[in-house]
Amino acid sequence: MRYANNKPTRDYMLNPESWIKSWRKLMQNESPPAPQQEKTCILLILDTTHGQIGGTEKNTISLAQELKKKGYYPVLIEVGFEILKQCDDSDGLSIFNIHEKAFDVVGFFVWRKVIANFGPSAIIRSKTWAGCINWRLDLAAALSSAIYLSWEHHPANAKNLENNFTLKAFLKNYLRTLLHINTSKRTLAVSYAVRNALSDCYPIKINEIDIIYPGVDFEKFSYNKSASLALRKKWNIPESAFIIGSLGRLTPHKGNDFILKVVAGILKKNPSLNIWCVIAGKGSDLLRLQGISESLGIKDRTLFPGWQEDPSITWSAIDIFLMPSSDEGLGMTLIEAAACKCIPLSSPVGGMKEVLYDSLSQYSLPEHSIDAWVDMCIQLVMEGYEKNSARHNSIYTVIRQRFDAKNQWQKIAAWIDKNI
Q: Assign residue 159 a region: left if phi > 0, alpha if psi is -120 to 50, beta otherwise?
């Protein structure tokens, strides 16, 4: 087996033939030597088969950096596309890729080999409960000496119900869930909404699930006026225009079609308003969204600029950030956008209602009421920049107190210390 600096090389991790050879050696009881490490290794495992960087991916990288500061040796294992190294925050981290089309097709002996090679003290799986599809990893973890921890970002409000009308499917899901419950020592949820959904969907007690909000780096995510103006110029949008929009994966559950309907509703009520709609990001929903913008008659006021290298600059250029998602564990982009001087509006769904609550609940709008969103946007546009700046200052103060990365990642690292 090949190593670089006492770690498995990327060629090894990506080469199926090497996995087959390792499997044969395992069958012959010829286990390869584990890398020599002075620091305690922690494996952070996540699914990247969707091919894009979202809240879970950014959170996992941030946690790895915090663990590294504390003297651990964090290793990120991404199953699917190689995307984690695209993040600026991933510098200096050990990242390995298992290229598969789905997480649940990674074989048991592959996981056994990964665990044997790195010899971790702890294994942390992001989005581990939803569907309990990672039973092979669960089994490999159960047979190791590592502590297995679950870190759940997803609301998990839908079990893996595929073909559950058959006895075989029911027993399969039951046994997988039972395996996971008995393998995972402790679960950490990113919000109360995630914790409650887990307790509702799976046989796990609420008091067995801890809650710590992830953190946002408010130094990195901050308003940049000069970059904002430069980006508006690139988009050919006037400096005086009011931009309503979003940034993220273009998938149906993000509700970008709803945003287009809101913008169309604004222009229908008040055609004289100087507003634009910007929906940034990439994904399978792009062509459908472009068709909707044309059918609504707002094609000339709508821009789809694609993937954005620096989200903070994009958010700096947007005035109102709309997040009408139907499914969010917390809504990290809502916090990041607010850090960059956007006025955030969201549905009261999942963890988003925990971000915009109490004094900020006026920005949490009815999920399916286009009129409510239209009226709020018109109010914000008519109030102008000065009053919106005052609004933002109050939003920013509350959000920074609750989601500052300097505090939150230390809390999560301390939770890991406690459990291993």
A: beta
Structure tokens at 315: 């958010």
pTM: 0.84
Measured over the CA atoms of residue 307, residue 308, residue 311 and residue 315, the dihedral's sign is: negative
Beta bridge partners of 79: 47, 98
Distance CA(215)–CA(225), nearest Å, equals 24
Mean pLDDT (whole number) for 219-225: 94
The DSSP output letter for 234 is: H
Q: How far is CA 295 from the centre of its chain?
A: 31
Q: Are 403 and 335 in contact (CB under 8 A)?
A: yes
Name the phi and psi angles at 376, rounded to 5: -65, -45
Helix, strand, coil share of the chain (percent; to 5): 50, 15, 35
Mean confidence (pLDDT) of the chain: 87
CA atoms of 419 and 214, how far apart (whole Å) = 18
Tell me the backbone φ, ψ of residue 97, rounded to 5 degrees.
Answer: -115, 135
Yes or no: say if 153 and 82 are a contact pair by the CB < 8 Å rule.
no
Q: Are 396 and 98 in contact (CB under 8 A)?
A: no
Q: What is the pLDDT of residues 287-344, one digit of tens each?
A: 999 999 999 999 999 999 998 889 999 999 999 999 998 888 898 999 999 999 999 9
**CA 19/CA 15 separation, integer angstroms:** 7
What would the pLDDT profile of 386-407 be if each residue is shown by its tens digit? 888 999 999 999 999 999 999 9
